[in-house]
User: Which sequence fits this backbone?
């Protein structure tokens, strides 16, 4: 008796194509595809990839906006055992080139928005490029002529994708996902946010970011409709919310933009929309504002290394009886393991569990099916992230008596701006490469719009005439725009006794009254 | 990095004990246990079993009413890698003895209702017996003194339990379950019926039947409350429904008892209760009656061999726009694979797929993680049920164009009359649509001229004056003449422990000398 089938998220589409064949699966600009069509296109794309020499284990990179193309790649590439490498579309050409070389991409697929950049990268690195910019594109022609391919399901424990993170030590690291983890994560998301055949999921979150928290597969599993926003726009988001969207996901800074948008005025929705937020803690004030708009926010927590949300702030019925501000406080915590996740731990310096007192800070560690296989081609980084089989999140947290985790601070100094992680070390390296700079330190400054923005403290060589604007241009030429520090503070940097710059002190300095304008760029 | 954890349904309680510690997990007669207490008791029970010589792979049988004991056994026995053997409490002593010997039980745990029977069985077979009949019982004493045991999780592909079928075609067969299959089934049930921390699940279905379709674990995973009914009682069920029950499961015959109960009169509930039904197809008439009471029925289909419901009649939003009787017809079908199940097939005599035309009949076959490992100690039966890796359900079905399966009859219940196949289910549906009929069962009676002729057993509403001739006319107006029952037997129908009408018993009754003509129409 065959009592085994591989657990892979690509399996969900087979079921949905069989039982939801005529339901709309994807809406992307003017195009709509039913589940039957989506399955046919994904099978044809798989056939085309195989016919063009993409084999099991080969890396296929995607430089794509949220689109039917990205959803199809999520199905077709893992289906044939190949490895999907979603690229952050906001990276610079040299950053993208590094990733493409590092993962050894065989093929780069790009949507219209990034066709030119992809073509440049392709010729620079001798990687084949396939552009999907409408019905006449190479991508569409391939699908039109390809033979449908199903074949055996890939091994559930094999490499399914590599998601590059900016990380905290400079160069991006390639987080390796397996099929089994993505399958369980997709199920957990479908369960926790209540996805169903009548769900209409709006793509505000980038799909290149931890596979959009595995929602491309979760919505497919439920038989819902995915509505793609090629780029985020608050007015268009409000239009879609009024048109029947039931679910979306976004970082708190994006939620702020939605709530603050002129389109939001007097716009409390008739139906509640379920919103998942993560990437940074939403403020209780934001949670309340969203609630007033009939946007029911669930707070999730995760990392690229955990397939996105490994924790969910699960609503407890007993909270109904509590005062509103107490509930806001409870809901702003990162929460509890999702239904398929293993229990997290918060460890003290000796590796023991901190008491569940909501006060003692330790490092959050996680293990189980929802943890990455490791960093691609980087055993040192993998080993450094491994504490006796538990993944070190690098986040400082407390464990509350009710079993909910709350993140207190980041162990390292990642700056989260507009939902994107900025490695302070990476920006510092670029600053330090300027001939007039002695040393630099970059920290986040709280910002109403972006959550945080990067601010640089820079020690210049004596006699140097460089300005903040000069340094900003220097960084902009080398890194994505969002990584460019918004302000520059010049002067000698403080140092600890071991020679490190105490970034907490710098953050404290920024939190004091406005810096002298003369010091700014 | 540890990117793997065993998929076992016993893992859910660890999570719920951590994050739902003070929520009520189980209510059983006068006793209530929180999730913290349930987890402590289950760990102590596991410790006690291990301390008393129960090792990995040993069989522990349970002769228990729906109770906290049964829920604790579902956790503790698989937790230590031992094998749970739930016993059908309505079997005779000799049937139970056969099963205990066949599985080689090391220990028999019984609740008070079955203490005497268990003790007899224990001395007859030299099997240790542990009785749980209140706070002073041996079972409770063991838990009180045992050391808590966690230990490593069992292998997900190892034997977790043996569920004996009722054995309508001979000796009971022992259906072998693995951890992985039960884990995925529990997740699927939690997803499809929307179990959540505020769910209150009423145990009308026997837990000994396919582990209550894996709901003991599904409710634990969701953090809901399980309310145990030690024996089914319609009045008590109505009391519980009014007290806040949100979900229950039952066979259609049990739903009929609930709907026809005096307690139901004028009892439309304020809140909708989600009801899962399976084991036999609910008639459209029953679905409508339940709907009038605000009992929202979802039709599920499965077998002991598939961990219970491997298919779900998933509601399609498009059905909202259809006329009521059309919707009833669509909802009465067995449906689509559940979210973790693999797609079923309907095979013709040559082993090919029948067309998806809703008309061509074939045998339903299933494979994947939701299929048993095989029959314990019975390779012949396992081989006979295996069609090239697919499990033969023994059910005759059609595949509809929308991908939904509809069972036409059990292979062995089809009536062959004058060379024509008659689906007993089809005739029963027509009979059940008559306003005076509560339920019906149609079987074949040997006939010298036709081979077999259909005969109907019918339960009428009290005070009904309808005759066999009336019912024959009712059927003749709707179906072909050869499908009209030749005789009608009026009276209450027998039911098996799982709420099914035992058609083999009805056939046996017909094979005896001519029934008393007074009883006939």
Assistant:
């Amino acid at each position: 008796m065959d009592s085994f089938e591989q657990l892979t998220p690509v399996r969900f589409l087979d079921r949905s194509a069989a039982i939801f064949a005529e339901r709309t699966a994807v809406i992307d600009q003017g195009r709509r595809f039913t589940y039957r069509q989506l399955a046919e296109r994904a099978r044809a794309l798989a056939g085309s990839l195989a016919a063009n020499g993409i084999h099991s284990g080969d890396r296929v990179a995607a430089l794509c906006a949220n689109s039917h193309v990205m959803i199809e790649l999520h199905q077709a590439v893992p289906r044939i055992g190949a490895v999907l490498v979603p690229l952050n579309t906001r990276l610079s050409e040299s950053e993208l080139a590094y990733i493409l070389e590092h993962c050894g991409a065989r093929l780069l697929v790009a949507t219209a928005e990034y066709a030119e950049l992809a073509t440049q990268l392709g010729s620079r690195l001798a990687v084949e490029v396939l552009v999907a910019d409408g019905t006449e594109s190479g991508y569409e022609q391939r699908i039109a002529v390809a033979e449908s391919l199903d074949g055996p399901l890939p091994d559930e424990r094999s490499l399914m994708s590599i998601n590059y993170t900016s990380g905290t030590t400079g160069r991006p690291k390639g987080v390796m996902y397996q099929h089994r983890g993505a399958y369980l994560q997709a199920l957990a998301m479908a369960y926790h946010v209540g996805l169903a055949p009548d769900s209409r999921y709006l793509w505000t979150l980038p799909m290149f970011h931890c596979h959009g928290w595995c929602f491309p597969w979760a919505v497919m599993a439920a038989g819902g409709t995915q509505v793609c926003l090629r780029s985020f726009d608050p007015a268009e988001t409000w239009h879609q919310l009024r048109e029947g969207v039931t679910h979306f996901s976004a970082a708190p800074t994006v939620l702020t933009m939605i709530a603050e948008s002129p389109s939001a005025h007097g716009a409390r929705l008739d139906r509640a929309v379920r919103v998942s937020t993560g990437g940074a803690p939403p403020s209780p004030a934001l949670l309340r504002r969203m609630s007033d708009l009939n946007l029911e926010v669930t707070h999730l927590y995760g990392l690229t290394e955990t397939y996105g949300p490994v924790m969910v702030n699960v609503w407890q019925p007993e909270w109904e009886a509590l005062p509103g501000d107490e509930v806001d406080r409870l809901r702003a915590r990162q929460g509890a393991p999702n239904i398929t996740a293993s229990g997290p731990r918060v460890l003290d310096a000796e590796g023991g569990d901190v008491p569940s007192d909501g006060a003692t800070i330790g490092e959050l560690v996680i293990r189980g099916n929802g943890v990455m296989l490791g960093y691609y081609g980087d055993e040192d980084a993998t080993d450094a992230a491994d504490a006796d089989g538990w993944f070190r999140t690098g986040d400082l947290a407390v464990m509350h008596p009710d079993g909910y985790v709350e993140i207190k601070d980041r162990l390292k100094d990642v700056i989260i701006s507009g939902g994107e992680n900025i490695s302070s070390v990476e920006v510092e390296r670029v600053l330090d490469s300027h001939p007039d700079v002695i040393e630099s330190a970059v920290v986040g400054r709280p910002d109403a719009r972006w959550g945080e923005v990067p601010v640089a403290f820079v020690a210049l060589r004596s006699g140097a005439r460089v300005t903040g604007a000069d340094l900003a241009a220097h960084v902009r030429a080398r890194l994505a725009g969002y990584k460019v520090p918004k302000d520059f503070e010049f002067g000698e940097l403080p140092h600890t006794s071991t020679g490190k710059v105490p970034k907490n002190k710098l953050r404290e300095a920024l939190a004091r009254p406005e810096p002298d304008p003369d010091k700014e760029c």
